[in-house]
Specification:
296 residues
Length: 296
């Protein structure tokens, strides 16, 4: 595809992923009043796994042994992050949880510098700070570091590791297989978390529609797109793009939920958008030199 700006397309793809994730917040909040957290996650990712395997059965078999090991590691990391984040949400407010989870935008360059010896340029750091301030304005109404916040902070670190791993290991060629195997592993991790209380399923057709939507659109399709996009982006740039998730979550909550538009949403969203704009306009070499892909 000559002439295609893959990094720019990848950023747009991640924005679509963030929009899909953001659309699930008000749906999940409603669904979890009638369904256990671990049961919901296990069912959601099981449906997504089946869909991915049925769409392209040979994808996992075509992965190299090394790629399979990496997919398992990524799936375990993401699955644990989901369980830890959701458990943390039980002990803190949704707004604080959204902010603390979004701290992966800070952890990603920090862990990338430590693990992969990346040197992060000043433009990237400025964008990270801007996005973090935007998340704070958007989400925070006071912050106390209790049990829930600490669990959520741990999940943010795990999400950052997942972003770094995808950035280093994904390629356009292995994206589908890597996504499929990851999804199966995530399902297994969430199913283990659901075992103690037994399994339950949605009780109404409307709840099933919500679960299937979150499984196929915000689950299977989103992970494929994220995996492909991160083959073309640095981890920091990808993390900043994904901080748009709470902005989309607030937008959908206003449009389709019961939330009202506030100045905090407008100012916080504008700051996150400014960080995105800075990433796209900053000298590209500052970002493109940040990470090398480790597909071999």
């Amino acid at each position: 595809m000559s002439g295609v700006n893959h990094p720019r397309v990848a950023v747009l793809a991640l924005l679509a992923v963030a929009a899909a994730w953001g659309s699930t917040f008000f749906l999940t909040k409603d669904l979890l009043t009638r369904m256990d957290v671990a049961d919901y996650l296990a069912l959601r990712f099981l449906i997504a796994s089946v869909a991915l395997v049925l769409v392209h059965p040979p994808a996992i078999a075509k992965l190299s042994r090394l790629d399979r090991g990496r997919a398992v590691a990524l799936g375990i990391t993401y699955g644990i992050a989901q369980l830890v984040q959701t458990e943390g949400l039980r002990h803190t407010s949704a707004s604080v949880s959204g902010f603390v989870t979004g701290m992966y935008v800070v952890f990603t360059p920090l862990l990338g510098a430590v693990i992969l010896r990346h040197k992060i340029g000043r433009w990237a750091w400025f964008a990270v700070i801007l996005a973090t301030v935007g998340l704070g304005v958007l989400s925070l109404r006071g912050l106390s570091m209790g049990h829930g916040e600490l669990l959520t902070l741990a999940s943010a670190g795990l999400y950052a590791l997942h972003i770094i791993g995808l950035g280093a290991w994904s390629t356009p060629q292995n994206a589908f297989g890597l996504s499929s195997l990851q999804m199966i592993v995530i399902t297994c991790v969430c199913a283990i978390g659901a075992i103690p209380g037994g399994f339950s399923v949605p009780g109404t057709g409307r709840d099933w529609v919500s679960v299937v939507y979150m499984a196929l659109v915000a689950g299977a399709l989103a992970l494929i797109v994220q995996t492909w996009a991160q083959a073309h982006l640095t981890p920091t740039r990808a993390a900043i793009a994904m901080t748009m998730e709470p902005v989309f979550a607030s937008t959908f909550a206003v449009l389709f939920g019961s939330d009202s538009l506030t100045w905090r949403m407008l100012v916080g969203g504008a700051l996150v958008l400014s960080a995105m704009y800075l990433v796209e306009l900053a000298p590209r070499r500052k970002f493109e030199a940040e990470v090398q892909h480790l597909a071999q």
